[in-house]
Amino acid sequence: MRKVILVNEGRMPHYRIPVYSYLDGYLKKHGYSLIVASEGAQNENPHAIRFRHEQTVQCFSNLRRLFRREKPDAALLWLGPHLYMIPLHLYFKWRRIKVIHWGHRRPMHRHILIKNILYNLEHWMDDAVVVYAEDLRKYIWNRFQSKTFVANNTLNLTEYRGGDVSREEIKRKYNIPTAKNIICVGRMHRRKRIDDLVEAFRALKLDDVGLILVGPDPDGILSKLDGRNVFKFGPVHGDESLDLLSASDVYCLPGAVGLGIVDALYCGLPVITENVMHGPEIMYLKEGINGFITPVGDIDQLASKLRLLLTDDDMRARFSKAAREEISVSGHIEKMCEGFLSALQYVCRQEDGATMRVDGDSCS
């Protein structure tokens, strides 16, 4: 059994914990044991930790101590560029620990010269790179393409048991009387263009359609938002969030779509957004098949697409079916795990079966 340490930057986001639990079981089936190192879990985490977890403040000395004690075959790093990464890489080279970096890599910082230099230096020192989506390969230098792998960024939704409670029961629980509903789930940051959604909703003027807003409001966008058929619930996590999605009809987040699209499509919701810079998870939206992308700031177009999907039941049903199919294939947690496994198998095969561990255990 080969040992892998996954270093999660800072505190583990609550949505990553079920992902790591699934990854732990998946890798065990293929001969790898997983340890996750982090600074703990985010507050109000609703998920049980079902993998081996090592809590440590992240700095070079602490991580070196952890790796020296555990003697892993490989390090899987979900870390941004830090100055301590250079000595850490040198330590890994000395201890013959293979290094796999996982994340966005360059694209989120493509206009920041220093960070780009650090990313390329890391790529040069990495034994493999894992990116969130196939489209992100274009940000990796050609010389590193052969060691770059894709693990579609997604969520572990295998434990959600939707259907135990009916749509109408969920709506009654949350006092939502409207027949059809648009829903938006996530942090209500200004970059997510929630104001556009509110304007488009008001332009609809459909008496029996509601707008459901779920998530924290750090920028105070919703504090002064009131009106008929507008429902604000604040932070809702886990199965309760999925229940609200399952009881809705259309998902709309005009700006900065991220992992929330996975939940929405899994629950069979068509997705509508604007043509802005999104996270790599936008890959799951197929224009005219399971959703629409409208011009930036075009409230009329946004309202038109919302109206179309709310009033055309046959189209909404087709989009809903396509949404579930997309996530069940491209966005399934198994697809993500396959990407990690491919990277691990690649670094194990490097150097014609050379040993990965100082003690001489073979990786072949």
Short summary:
The chain contains 11 helices and 13 strands.
Q: Explain this structure to me?
A:
- There is one protein chain.
- This protein has eleven helices and 13 strands.
- The protein has 364 residues and is an alpha/beta fold.
- It folds into two domains: 2-154 and 332-353, Glycogen Phosphorylase B (Rossmann fold, 3-Layer(aba) Sandwich); 167-329, Glycogen Phosphorylase B (Rossmann fold).
- The strands form two sheets. It has a seven-stranded parallel beta sheet, sandwiched between helices. A six-stranded parallel beta sheet has the order 10-9-8-11-12-13, with helices on both faces.
- Strand 11 (250-252), helix 8 and strand 12 form a beta-alpha-beta unit.
- Helix 6 crosses helix 9 (299-311).
- 40% of the residues are buried.
- Mean pLDDT is 90; it is low at 355-364.
Give short descriptive properties of this protein.
2 domains; Rossmann fold; 18% strand; single chain; six-stranded parallel sheet; 364 residues; seven-stranded parallel sheet; 13 strands
Query: Structural class, from secondary structure content?
Result: alpha/beta
What is the assigned CATH homologous superfamily of the largest domain? Glycogen Phosphorylase B
Number of helices: 11
Alpha carbon gyration radius: 22 Å
At the first level of CATH, the class of the largest domain is Alpha Beta
Helix content: 25-40%
Distance between the termini: 12 Å
**CATH topology assignment of the largest domain:** Rossmann fold
Task: Give the second-level CATH assignment, the architecture of the largest domain.
Answer: 3-Layer(aba) Sandwich
Low-confidence stretches: 355-364
Number of domains: 2
Query: What's the order of the H and E elements?
Result: EHEEHEHEHEEHEHEEHEHEEHHH
Give the overall pLDDT as a whole number: 90
Portion of residues in beta strands equals: 15-25%
Largest sheet: 7 strands, parallel
